[in-house]
Amino acid sequence: HGRGDKETDLYFISNRLKKLGNFTPQNAIVLHPFGRQCIGWKSAGEIDVLEAINDVAQRYQIDRDRIALMGFSMGGAGAWHIGAHYTDRFALVHAGAGFAETAQYNRLKPDDYPPVYEQTLWGVYDAPNYVRNLFNVPVIAYSGEIDKQIQAAQVMEAAFEAESRTLKHLIGPKMGHKYDPETQQAIAEMVTGALEEGRDVFAKSVSLQTQTLRYNRMHWITATGLEKHWEDSRIDAKRSGSAVQVKTKNINEFSIATGKSPLLSMTVDGVALKNPPTMDRAFLHKADGAWKSGKLPPTGLRKLPGMQGPIDDAFLAPFLVVLPDKKSESHQVQAWVEFELAHFEQRWRATFRGKLRKKKASEVTAEDTRSFNLVAFGEPQTNSLIATAVGAWDDLDWGKQELSLAGQQVAAVNHLPLMIRPNPANPKKYLVINSGPTFREGHDRTNSLQNPKLPDWAIINLEQKPSDLAAGRVVAAGFFDESWK
């Protein structure tokens, strides 16, 4: 669906009962996911889409190899984003209008750019950074000739051309922000043709492009380790019988689903492996500049798929908000915690269409630690969960008087850290400190700005009151390395 600020749950359901949408194919189920209302199919919204598809698959005998992803306006933006990040789940991607990235869509000039870490985080959702994924599936873009949102398809055309590919872009003559009936019919016929052919799960050629292990899979190729997050990372693989050729960039571990045919030869980055793996799923890792069979040797914590940050990543899975057991001795800290907790609850209900799970730190159980990402507010003196974590982290010194992190030393009375790390009590789940989703009300004016605003960690000064753009003045911020240091 397109953007609709007032299109809350019941209104959406009512509309779907009355309006079938632009495409009503025969012999098919048309699924209209809600996507958490109006957050551009990002964050919890993208998970809603995947969960809605799985629900249909459980209720009906659909063919998982014949699913088309289609959308218009904000739905078109969602098709670009979800199509570029989860390409291998679909037999076709069709994006009408919408937006595909952040800077050009908002006409930002370099002088207007946000901090470097926020620019880096455009790499979470900007579809041009994932364009090679779209080479694995038929893609159809549509724009009205006089629609300003033709910009999205033009940006993606340029991204395709930069990789020596051509995007199929259909344009409705003299059309604004709607479909031209004749072009719409042509799109419907193309969709039908693509679905009749279906997706090729074991395609002979596969391309994966990403900047984060959150989006790490393409058919039979899975990236499980990056040399460095938020840089262009690629795997291009070709199969020919029992032989596989792989080319990588910024990858230090990946796996291949070998299928029913064992691999007899494998070449990675131009070097033939002496003992190619033969099991159903083959793992390879880079050591001392050379590729070897097997997983990376365990060396403590490291960023893994689904456990790689930034802060906003914690809200793509079930989480529990952990409240402090007592008040802070700092009036500034106490006032900030009370405001941000109330703001988080209101925002999660109004914008994300959910109700927060909440418990005091003293009430958190072992089952909670196993089941949820934990989001703890307060200080070591007021929240025992934070105190335990700080005791396990040797790079965060947080006492009553001073706070020290990443070489930054500030007064604890009017500063707080906002951060994400694996929970020391359960490294398979996150522990977030003092933060909900980092994009705020001021970013809701366009879905293209509803992106992460803070990286893995930040220190904020509480002298600047929370606003519709920030929780406070950011003194310092950055990303942890691949070992969460």
Topology record:
Layout: H1 9-18, H2 44-59, E1 68-72, H3 74-85, E2 92-96, H4 116-121, E3 139-144, H5 150-162, E4 168-172, H6 181-197, E5 205-210, E6 217-218, E7 221-226, E8 233-240, E9 243-249, E10 251-257, E11 265-268, E12 271-272, E13 281-287, E14 290-293, E15 319-323, H7 331-350, E16 358-360, H8 366-371, E17 373-376, H9 384-392, E18 396-398, E19 402-405, E20 408-411, E21 415-423, E22 426-433, E23 457-461, E24 473-478
Parallel strand pairs: 1-2, 2-3, 3-4, 9-11, 15-16, 15-17, 17-22
Antiparallel strand pairs: 5-8, 6-7, 7-10, 8-9, 10-13, 11-12, 13-14, 18-19, 19-20, 21-22, 21-23, 23-24
Describe the structure.
With 485 residues, the chain is α/β, with parallel strands linked by helices. The chain is built from nine helices and 24 strands. The protein has helices at 9-18, 44-59, 74-85, 116-121, 150-162, 181-197, 331-350, 366-371, 384-392, and strands at residues 68-72, 92-96, 139-144, 168-172, 205-210, 217-218, 221-226, 233-240, 243-249, 251-257, 265-268, 271-272, 281-287, 290-293, 319-323, 358-360, 373-376, 396-398, 402-405, 408-411, 415-423, 426-433, 457-461, 473-478. It has a seven-stranded mixed β-sheet with strand order 16-15-17-22-21-23-24. Strand 15, helix 7 (331-350) and strand 16 form a beta-alpha-beta unit. The chain is globular, with a radius of gyration of 24 Å. It starts with 8 loop residues before the first helix and ends in a 7-residue tail after the last strand. The mean pLDDT is 95.
Q: What percentage of residues falls in helices of 4 or more residues?
A: 10-25%
Strand count, sense and barrel status of the largest sheet are: 7 strands, mixed
Percentage of β-strand residues: 25-35%
Ranges where pLDDT stays below 50 over 5 or more residues in a row are none
Side-by-side strand order of the widest sheet: 16-15-17-22-21-23-24
How far do the termini sit from each other? 41 Å
Radius of gyration, in Å, reads 24 Å
What overall form do the CA principal axes indicate?
globular
Number of helices: 9
Counting DSSP E segments of at least 2 residues, the number of strands comes to: 24
The structural class is alpha/beta
Task: Summarize model confidence as the mean pLDDT.
Answer: 95
